[in-house]
Amino acid sequence: MSERFSGQAVLVAGGGSGIGRAVALAFAREGARVAVAGRTRAALDATVALVEAGGGTAVAVTADVTRGPDAEAMVARTVARLGSLDVAVNGVGILVAPGPVGDMAEDAWRRTVDTNLTGLWLSMKHEIAHMRRHGGGAIVNIASNIGAHRRAPGLGAYAASKAAVSALTRSAALDHIADGVRINAVSPGPVDTPMSSRPGETPAAKAARMRADLPLGRASTTAEVAAAVLHLASPEAASTVGTDLVLDGGATA
Fold first, then answer.
1. What is the pTM of this model?
2. In what order do the strands lie in the sheet with 87-90?
């Protein structure tokens, strides 16, 4: 097993489940000390337990990154407990009930944008602030193929927020590469997590839909997304700056 991240401290915002949990586990397997952050302590503790069961080191940091002081404290607590911050992965995100833009409730719009865009920006703001004072680092944001790359009926707020994540990532990458902070994004398509399931959909029905909808014939696994995140954060991607890597089984090819 590679030790690409041996001795490094990695923060995974949104590390309590799904892609974030897979990312945290993947970094730990490659030698990193990991902080997993999010709103639900029980989910974070479950990720920590999985990391520790595999022989890794992890800590849980409770934070609501839609609030500036929480995002700032998330970074400060990570540094206090792990000693540094070398890599940050921002995977916060929600998907509200689908519906036409003209019928969307204002609260649903605000919750989507506050979490998917503002929460990610606040996280990145404080991660960058620490990294540029301490020799640099790498940041990977989780966007989506829905947004800058593809649209779908009923997902207006989600698409707008994730397209903005892609644009924000590229802008931040240009702003801060001279500071030694290298920033990129990953845009998954359907991933084998509950977020990609339709209400009441059985696993068999979901698999059939993926076979019909995706050239690859299946959803991506969380491990495949994690592998892409680790690549972008690794020394092998040292000249990759401001990219948005799409992993969607060919849906937007």
1. 0.96
2. 57-62, 33-38, 9-13, 87-90, 137-142, 181-188, 244-247
